[in-house]
Amino acid sequence: MSKLHVGYVRKAIEDRFAGFMDMSDQARMSGDKLHQAFLSRGLAALAAQIEHPCSDRVAATRVFDGQDDQGLDSIAVDLGTTRSRICLVQAKWSDQNRGGFGEADVHKMFHGLDLMLDRNFGRFNRRFQPFVPDIERAYDSGTPKITLVLALMREAPLSDGVRDLIKMKQDEQNQVVRDMVEVKALDLRDFHRAILGESAAPKIDTKVQLECFGQESTPYKAMYGTMTVPDLADLYEEHRRGLFARNIRDSLDESDVNSKIRETLREEPEHFWYFSNGITMLCESIQPIGRALPGKVGNFQLSGVSVVNGAQTVSAIYRAFTEDTGAAQDGRVLVRLISLEDCPPGFGDQVTTTTNTQNPIEERDFKSLDPGQITLREDFARLLKRSYVTKRGETVPDSAHGCSITEAAEALAAVSPNARLAAVAKRDDDLVGLWEDHNYQETFGSEPNVFKVWRSVELLREVRAQLKSLREGLVWRADAAAFYGDLLVTHLVYRRLDTRAIEDPECDWAAELAKVPDLVRDSLSWVLDAINNEYGKSSHIIAAVRNTERIERVVRAALRRLDSGEEAPDLNEDYRVATAEAKGRRGNAVTTLVAAGEVEEGTVLEFRPYSKPERREMTEWLAADPRRTQATWSNEAGRNPLQWHADNEWYSPSGLARKMRFEASGVNSAAQGTIRWFVPGQGSLDELALAVRLREGNEPTET
Predict the structure, then answer these.
(1) N or C, which terminus of the chain has less Cβ within 10 Å?
(2) Which range has highest mean pLDDT (177-186, 490-499, 552-561)?
């Protein structure tokens, strides 16, 4: 491809986004530099649009490139019914088709992801803030699928060093949460194809060989048979992603499914035919080559072929074959070829949709037939007068009238003496690991007791309710620990309760549940203390609760402190809204900043909601008028250095923060403005004032 194709992409970006892209923060740029910045943002919008289709206007609003973008340029959040998805884009435009992407860019991109996972949203700029509530909802609904997209105006492959670094960083993220993070690279070919639509999709004509083939002639023509792994690997090698032009989704190269496919091909290639669901290809036409007798080996010429079901299987076959040719070459897979020659309009789309939306059988479905589960269901009805749902698709009762097998499994994993099970339960939203036979047996036991099951569920619910309440006043790592650590905290609370009679129908369980609020508060404090001490204050909270080795280590450390009777430590002041407010008032930040001339006259500051309640109450209000998020600083205005863009009046940072929240939600409460107003690229006013004091030797003391 050439600069001509770069020109096609440039024109498409100009036509689509010129009227929508916010470039107000680039006012000091002009001419070609400003246009290059626009094209880079347009590329980020286009990439997010490819991953999550939307209008051009919406795609433009997803771009937050600029100061404090933390190495990311665009975002799209899809709150799906099964699993939410978050797409994060870093874009590199180049008129010369040589968009650079080096190791520094990789580190910046993953650093931005780390900040997001730790819920440190205040480090991102004002354009990012409107997406925080949806990000939190994606987190709260379970582990989202996170796609990091490299949007690169180039054709050349990434260097080996960059590719290796990306793989290492991706593996680190997926070490404790399987299949959470994937990385995609979109290049000139992808953008050109996206702009031209289906007309840019390559028409693939190829020859295939089917062993033991059969055929259908009515109502429509189709062939089916077995293809060898080497043949399918060659097919993918030649045509790559063009092979999936009609598929609902492209191949997911790093998915857990693909890992299992490759493992089977490496270790049990002779069983692959039996374990695989096979591959379905649509073809404009199918013609036999030579004499083709059903039941024998047949060779066929295919025109306009596309894999519409089994894209993951094809890409995994290719990777397994290239990684271990010797082992994988014995693999074989069932293939269906469907000709569209005499089919009615839309039939191909029906095949594509239907073959990709059938519900697979999961391990949990088999466990619902376990005799222990059948007994539990009967005991719930007979002894508790409640419902116990074991099968997918059944209506789950409200919390007062019962629970599901999934909720019971989570609760029993949390209260198990083996903390490892709590980590296993947190790895996957659908508890895949807990349904494995050895974990399932350890979780439920051979004869699960209905009273222990129900009381464990009640405990987990109460712990989660307390953590939810605490999270209203928590930020950053403490908020993350309270959310991700629900099973870990439940485990610690359970071990501090008197549970000797939990299986006894006469047990006074209500008396034990009354102890939960204090225990939750103390346990959370010791958990965060243990994580920080054992793994560092910059370590991932999510790793500590989902890695079996780490959770056991954290449990041992936290239990030692709980059992000692020592008073639980206060959470770090940076983790609590109330103490952060108090910290910000220890010195007059405005006076300090003005005296030092730290903030340049005329600097435009931006407002970032600090707490969860603020984000809930203010996000839509702020988005309705972007002027509300900005104020201009003056060193000549005394105690009221901020001129709010929404009304051009002058305010103190705290006075304006209080006014804004009242206008947005009717809540009239004091708010420390210096931790909410930021100088882009430098930090909050509170952070800048602290830096001045430290520089001048006036380090604040704890009170």
Answers:
(1) C
(2) 490-499
Of the pLDDT bands very low, low, confident and very high (cuts 50, 70, 90), residue 297 is: very high
Percent of the chain with pLDDT over 90: 41
**Closest by Cα among 311, 309, 289 to 298:** 289
| pLDDT for res 253 | 46
Q: What is the pLDDT of residue 231?
A: 93
Identity of the highest mean pLDDT range in 198-212, 247-261, 685-699: 685-699
Question: 223 with 285: CB under 8 angstroms?
Answer: no
In three-state secondary structure terms, 298 is strand
Q: 286 pLDDT exceeds 60? A: yes
- What angle in degrees, to the nearest 10, is found between the helix axes of 548-564 and 486-496? 40
Residues of the chain with pLDDT > 70: what percent? 91
Collapsed DSSP state (helix, strand, coil) of residue 43? helix
pLDDT at residue 142 greater than cutoff 80:
no
What is the b/e burial string over 405-416, where b = at least 16 CB atoms within 10 angstroms of the residue's CB? bbbbbbbbbbbb
- Nearest Cα neighbor of 87 from 192, 164, 190, 181 is 181
Any idea which residue has 């900043």 for tokens?
Answer: 593
Those residues whose C-beta lies under 8 Å from the C-beta of residue 276, and which sit 6 or more positions away, are 261, 264, 313, 333, 334
Q: Write the pLDDT tens digit of every residue in 175-200.
A: 766 778 989 888 888 888 777 664 44
Closest CA to 606 of 633, 572, 575: 633
State the angle between helix axes of 256-267 and 311-323 in degrees (0 to 180), rounded to the nearest 10: 50
- List Cβ neighbours of 359 (8 Å cut-off, separation of 6 or more): 392
Contact (CB, 8 A) for 112 and 128: no
pLDDT tier at 573 (50, 70, 90 boundaries)? low
Residue type, 189: R
Give the phi and the psi of residue 187 in degrees, each rounded to 5: -120, -170
Name residue 624's amino acid. A
Q: Which residue do the tokens 């600069």 mark?
A: 3
Phi-psi region of 346 (alpha: psi -120 to 50; beta: other; left: phi over 0): left
Q: Is the dihedral of CA 43, 174, 307, 262 positive or negative?
A: positive
- Residue 509: phi and psi, rounded to 5, are -70, -30
Pairing mode, if any, of strands 642-644 and 650-651? antiparallel
What is the per-residue pLDDT for 199? 45
**Mean pLDDT score of the chain:** 86
Token couple for 190: 């992808």
- The closest of 116, 356, 118, 336 to 252, measured between CA atoms, is 356
pLDDT of residue 678: 94
Residue 219, preceding peptide bond in cis (omega within 30° of 0): yes
Residue scoring higher pLDDT (649 or 242): 649
What is d(CA 627, CA 644) in angstroms, rounded to the nearest whole number? 8
Examine the pLDDT at 100 and tell me if it is beyond 70: yes
Lowest mean pLDDT among 452-456, 630-634, 693-697: 693-697
Reference 118, options 528, 579, 424; nearest CA is 528
> Which amino acid is located at 256 in the chain?
D
Residue 447 neighbours by CB distance under 10 Å: 9
| Dist. CA 567–CA 180, nearest whole Å | 37
> What is the C-alpha to C-alpha distance for residues 354 and 352, in angstroms, rounded to an integer?
6
74-78, strands of its sheet edge to edge? 74-78, 85-92, 145-152, 181-186
Cα–Cα distance measured from residue 154 to residue 2, given in angstroms and rounded to the nearest whole number: 10
Cβ within 8 Å of residue 37, ≥6 positions away: 23, 26, 29
3 state SS of 74: strand
SS3 label, residue 346: coil
Q: How far apart are CA 247 and CA 468, in angstroms?
A: 41
Cα within 13 Å of Cα(286), Cβ side: 26
Rounded CA Rg of the chain = 29
